[in-house]
Design brief:
Strand content: under 5%
Structural class: mainly alpha
Number of helices: 8
Shape: globular
Largest sheet: none
Number of strands: 0
Number of domains: 1
Length: 186
Protein backbone atom coordinates (compact mmCIF):
# COMPACT_ATOMS: atom_id res chain seq x y z
CA UNK A 1 0.00 0.00 0.00
CA UNK A 2 2.79 2.37 0.82
CA UNK A 3 4.30 2.08 -2.66
CA UNK A 4 1.06 3.20 -4.25
CA UNK A 5 1.35 6.55 -2.49
CA UNK A 6 4.89 7.29 -3.69
CA UNK A 7 3.82 8.62 -7.12
CA UNK A 8 1.32 10.91 -5.43
CA UNK A 9 3.97 12.18 -3.03
CA UNK A 10 6.27 12.93 -5.95
CA UNK A 11 3.54 14.90 -7.72
CA UNK A 12 2.85 16.90 -4.57
CA UNK A 13 6.55 17.66 -4.18
CA UNK A 14 6.70 18.97 -7.74
CA UNK A 15 3.65 21.09 -7.08
CA UNK A 16 5.41 22.59 -4.04
CA UNK A 17 8.51 23.23 -6.16
CA UNK A 18 6.34 25.01 -8.72
CA UNK A 19 4.86 27.22 -6.01
CA UNK A 20 8.31 27.93 -4.62
CA UNK A 21 9.69 28.71 -8.06
CA UNK A 22 7.06 31.41 -8.59
CA UNK A 23 8.28 33.32 -5.55
CA UNK A 24 11.94 32.75 -6.38
CA UNK A 25 11.47 33.71 -10.03
CA UNK A 26 9.76 36.92 -8.92
CA UNK A 27 12.78 37.78 -6.75
CA UNK A 28 15.15 37.12 -9.66
CA UNK A 29 13.12 39.30 -12.03
CA UNK A 30 12.91 42.10 -9.47
CA UNK A 31 16.68 42.10 -9.00
CA UNK A 32 17.37 42.03 -12.74
CA UNK A 33 15.09 45.06 -13.20
CA UNK A 34 16.95 47.29 -10.73
CA UNK A 35 17.71 50.68 -12.32
CA UNK A 36 21.41 50.39 -11.38
CA UNK A 37 21.98 47.84 -14.13
CA UNK A 38 20.69 50.26 -16.73
CA UNK A 39 22.19 53.44 -15.27
CA UNK A 40 25.48 52.37 -13.68
CA UNK A 41 26.32 49.37 -15.87
CA UNK A 42 24.83 51.03 -18.97
CA UNK A 43 22.97 47.90 -20.09
CA UNK A 44 20.31 49.01 -22.57
CA UNK A 45 16.82 48.95 -21.06
CA UNK A 46 15.48 46.92 -23.96
CA UNK A 47 13.97 43.47 -24.24
CA UNK A 48 17.40 42.07 -25.11
CA UNK A 49 19.14 43.93 -22.27
CA UNK A 50 16.57 42.81 -19.72
CA UNK A 51 16.82 39.23 -21.02
CA UNK A 52 20.63 39.28 -20.63
CA UNK A 53 20.36 40.50 -17.03
CA UNK A 54 17.64 38.01 -16.21
CA UNK A 55 19.87 35.26 -17.56
CA UNK A 56 22.79 36.31 -15.32
CA UNK A 57 20.64 36.25 -12.20
CA UNK A 58 19.00 33.00 -13.18
CA UNK A 59 22.45 31.51 -13.71
CA UNK A 60 23.61 32.45 -10.20
CA UNK A 61 20.57 30.86 -8.58
CA UNK A 62 20.77 27.72 -10.74
CA UNK A 63 24.49 27.46 -9.97
CA UNK A 64 23.61 27.44 -6.26
CA UNK A 65 20.84 24.87 -6.75
CA UNK A 66 23.22 22.46 -8.52
CA UNK A 67 24.75 21.55 -5.16
CA UNK A 68 21.50 21.10 -3.24
CA UNK A 69 20.37 17.52 -3.87
CA UNK A 70 17.07 16.22 -5.23
CA UNK A 71 14.90 18.91 -3.67
CA UNK A 72 17.09 21.63 -5.18
CA UNK A 73 17.01 19.89 -8.57
CA UNK A 74 13.20 19.90 -8.47
CA UNK A 75 13.22 23.60 -7.66
CA UNK A 76 15.77 24.28 -10.42
CA UNK A 77 13.65 22.42 -12.98
CA UNK A 78 10.53 24.25 -11.89
CA UNK A 79 12.42 27.54 -12.07
CA UNK A 80 13.54 26.79 -15.63
CA UNK A 81 10.00 25.78 -16.58
CA UNK A 82 8.74 29.10 -15.23
CA UNK A 83 11.42 30.97 -17.16
CA UNK A 84 10.40 29.20 -20.37
CA UNK A 85 6.73 30.06 -19.76
CA UNK A 86 7.73 33.67 -19.13
CA UNK A 87 9.67 33.76 -22.43
CA UNK A 88 6.62 32.39 -24.24
CA UNK A 89 4.42 35.09 -22.68
CA UNK A 90 6.85 37.80 -23.75
CA UNK A 91 6.90 36.45 -27.31
CA UNK A 92 3.12 36.51 -27.43
CA UNK A 93 3.10 40.07 -26.10
CA UNK A 94 5.59 40.99 -28.83
CA UNK A 95 3.14 39.72 -31.42
CA UNK A 96 4.76 36.43 -32.41
CA UNK A 97 2.06 34.28 -33.97
CA UNK A 98 0.84 31.05 -32.40
CA UNK A 99 2.24 29.09 -35.32
CA UNK A 100 5.75 30.50 -34.82
CA UNK A 101 5.83 30.19 -31.02
CA UNK A 102 7.01 26.53 -30.83
CA UNK A 103 9.89 27.00 -33.27
CA UNK A 104 10.93 30.29 -31.69
CA UNK A 105 10.74 28.77 -28.21
CA UNK A 106 12.94 25.82 -29.21
CA UNK A 107 15.52 28.23 -30.61
CA UNK A 108 15.42 30.53 -27.57
CA UNK A 109 15.48 27.67 -25.07
CA UNK A 110 18.47 26.12 -26.81
CA UNK A 111 20.30 29.44 -26.93
CA UNK A 112 19.53 30.09 -23.26
CA UNK A 113 20.75 26.66 -22.20
CA UNK A 114 23.95 27.17 -24.18
CA UNK A 115 24.43 30.58 -22.54
CA UNK A 116 23.94 29.17 -19.04
CA UNK A 117 26.43 26.38 -19.76
CA UNK A 118 28.91 28.92 -21.13
CA UNK A 119 28.59 30.99 -17.95
CA UNK A 120 29.19 27.87 -15.86
CA UNK A 121 32.35 26.98 -17.77
CA UNK A 122 33.60 30.55 -17.78
CA UNK A 123 33.03 30.96 -14.05
CA UNK A 124 35.63 28.26 -13.42
CA UNK A 125 38.09 29.94 -15.79
CA UNK A 126 38.20 33.33 -14.09
CA UNK A 127 36.77 36.81 -14.44
CA UNK A 128 38.13 37.51 -17.94
CA UNK A 129 36.47 34.40 -19.36
CA UNK A 130 33.24 35.23 -17.57
CA UNK A 131 33.37 38.82 -18.82
CA UNK A 132 33.82 37.57 -22.39
CA UNK A 133 30.70 35.39 -22.09
CA UNK A 134 28.70 38.21 -20.53
CA UNK A 135 29.82 40.59 -23.29
CA UNK A 136 28.63 38.12 -25.91
CA UNK A 137 25.15 38.20 -24.34
CA UNK A 138 24.84 41.98 -24.13
CA UNK A 139 23.03 43.86 -26.90
CA UNK A 140 25.70 46.54 -27.15
CA UNK A 141 28.57 47.61 -29.36
CA UNK A 142 31.76 45.62 -28.70
CA UNK A 143 33.62 48.31 -26.72
CA UNK A 144 30.58 49.21 -24.62
CA UNK A 145 29.81 45.54 -24.03
CA UNK A 146 33.37 44.84 -22.89
CA UNK A 147 33.25 47.66 -20.33
CA UNK A 148 29.82 46.69 -19.00
CA UNK A 149 30.71 42.98 -19.03
CA UNK A 150 33.83 43.53 -16.93
CA UNK A 151 31.71 45.22 -14.28
CA UNK A 152 28.94 42.65 -14.56
CA UNK A 153 31.43 39.76 -14.27
CA UNK A 154 32.64 41.17 -10.94
CA UNK A 155 29.01 41.45 -9.83
CA UNK A 156 28.25 37.87 -10.92
CA UNK A 157 31.25 36.56 -8.97
CA UNK A 158 30.00 38.33 -5.83
CA UNK A 159 26.49 37.07 -6.52
CA UNK A 160 27.63 33.44 -6.90
CA UNK A 161 29.60 33.62 -3.64
CA UNK A 162 26.66 35.15 -1.79
CA UNK A 163 24.28 32.52 -3.23
CA UNK A 164 26.44 29.75 -1.75
CA UNK A 165 25.50 31.06 1.71
CA UNK A 166 21.75 31.07 1.04
CA UNK A 167 20.00 28.04 2.56
CA UNK A 168 17.74 26.05 0.28
CA UNK A 169 14.78 26.81 2.56
CA UNK A 170 15.35 30.53 1.97
CA UNK A 171 15.49 30.03 -1.77
CA UNK A 172 12.21 28.13 -1.65
CA UNK A 173 10.67 31.11 0.13
CA UNK A 174 12.12 33.55 -2.39
CA UNK A 175 14.29 35.08 0.31
CA UNK A 176 17.37 35.85 -1.68
CA UNK A 177 19.73 38.58 -0.59
CA UNK A 178 21.23 39.55 -3.92
CA UNK A 179 24.30 41.78 -3.62
CA UNK A 180 24.08 45.48 -4.26
CA UNK A 181 24.95 45.97 -7.95
CA UNK A 182 26.85 49.18 -7.20
CA UNK A 183 29.03 47.56 -4.53
CA UNK A 184 30.83 45.37 -7.08
CA UNK A 185 32.21 48.52 -8.69
CA UNK A 186 33.98 49.64 -5.53
Amino acid sequence: MRRALNPLKRLLRRSKAADDSAILYGAIVAQARLPAFYRVFAVPDTLEGRFALLGLHLFAVLHRLRSGGAEARDLAQSLMDRFIRDMETVLREQGVSDLKIPKTMRRLAGANLARLQAYEEALGQGRDALAAEVAAALPMADDEARIAAGRLAAYVEVMVISMEKVPLASLREGEVAFPDPGASLA
